[in-house]
Amino acid sequence: xxxxxxLTKIESTHYYNEEESQQPGETEKRCFMYCPYVFHSGLSSxxxxxxxxxxxxxxxxxxxxxxxxxxxxxxxxxxxxVLGLISTGK
Length: 90
Prior knowledge:
elongated, 5 strands
């Protein structure tokens, strides 16, 4: 059973032809995790620069070439203590 009811795991097919090894029309399976609301009271006292620097230091990032990683959704501002995130991978 899925432990976290607010999280959604979606398996999808992503179409692209950027790598030379892929032929037109070939597909690649991807997994996505979408979490619309993440709350932490400590976010209200942190600046964007500090938050994203801490994420990079912990290895939380998005790789544009591999099209995989974590993307943050800034719903309002960090002062509300709420943000969303999308993680993609193979």
